[in-house]
Amino acid sequence: MTRYSAYKTIATSFLCLAPAMVMANNVEPSAIPVTVEPVSTRNIAQKIEEVGKITALDNANLTFSAGAKIEKISFNDGDAVKKGDVIAELDSTKAKADLDKARSTLNLAKTKLQRTRDLLAKQPDALSPQDMDELQEEVNLAAADFRQQEATLKDYTIIAPFDGRLTTFTHSIGSHIDASTALVSLYKLDPVNVTYAISQEDLGMAQIGQTVAVTVSAFPEQTFTGEVNYIAPAVDESSGRVEVHATIENQELVLAPGMFANVSQQLQSGKAQLVVPQNAVLANNEQRYLWVVEGDQPQRRRVELGANTNDGYVIIKQGLKKGEQVVITGQQKLTDESSVNVLSSQQPEKNLSKSVNNAGNGTNKEAG
């Protein structure tokens, strides 16, 4: 073959291929396969989680109101006591003698008054009204002195003011203790309080009577339930937070004052919220968005997220409507010019009642 014939053959082949190349360049790009799921609603119970401390509902430092030698201690360290139990007694020999003396004086004054009355019943003019008033006053003064000595004797005894458990005694029998020095402390352990603080943002949703769930490290598998009984009327100036108390039943006395506790407080229940799968949400810096399918066209939609539901879904605060179809797989390849081929439509879970943590960020998948 001559050189001219070879050039002619190549040129002819190129001319034959050119229309095919032009046709290939004009072919529409294929649709991107995706799966979608409709935006659904759930009744969301919002909650907050904080760290608190177990405190006694009632506690008291038990003291004598008099100073003397301890004569009797009726309980041991750590014993449980009932309201009205005598915990300890001081040597009250002198106080008892003063009470006996006051009792005798009162009895004598009453007897003298009664005899005078009997005499006047027989001889009305035997005594003047003024003399009778003086006798009555002697009885009144003797009665007052008797009550005072009776009250003084109680200063030598410690009586349990409520049911509870004792701590360690600071003095033993035979030792001298001064008035107002604590001999032992008493804690009421059923029920107990859990004390914690919430943010100002959560204050508007917190209410007395809401349920709390509490766990402690000593019993990690056990959850204790309680009820909010106090919300501080003012924000703490140093922390900027609001103190909350909740009462917890403690019949087995396993919760001890001073324990740290993880507290979960239910804020709201039954509030309908829009939710989508977390894997549908993409991120572009601080923006969160997802793809919504209308026909065969995807639409990029910016959204504002709420909390996670802790089961793969996230609350949508703004940007979507119920029933809209959001892309849950294949969205990474989408652009504003793409067309889609919907392979299947997933249905949301049927469980419509969930609890969420107010601190959740809601984003499970990010893209640049």
Automatic annotation (TrEMBL):
Pfam families listed in its UniProt record: Beta-barrel_RND_2, BSH_CzcB, YknX_C
Name of the protein in its database record: Efflux RND transporter periplasmic adaptor subunit
Residue ranges that the Swiss-Prot or TrEMBL entry lists as coiled coil: 99-152
Organism name: Photobacterium rosenbergii
UniProt similarity note: Belongs to the membrane fusion protein (MFP) (TC 8.A.1) family.
Keyword terms of this UniProt record: Coiled coil, Signal
Chain spans, region Disordered: 336-368
Domain CzcB-like barrel-sandwich hybrid: 67-184
Leader sequence residues: 1-24
YknX-like C-terminal permuted SH3-like domain sequence ranges: 274-342
InterPro entries assigned: Beta-barrel_RND_2, BSH_CzcB-like, RND_pump_MFP, YknX-like_C
Domain CusB-like beta-barrel span(s) in chain numbering: 194-266
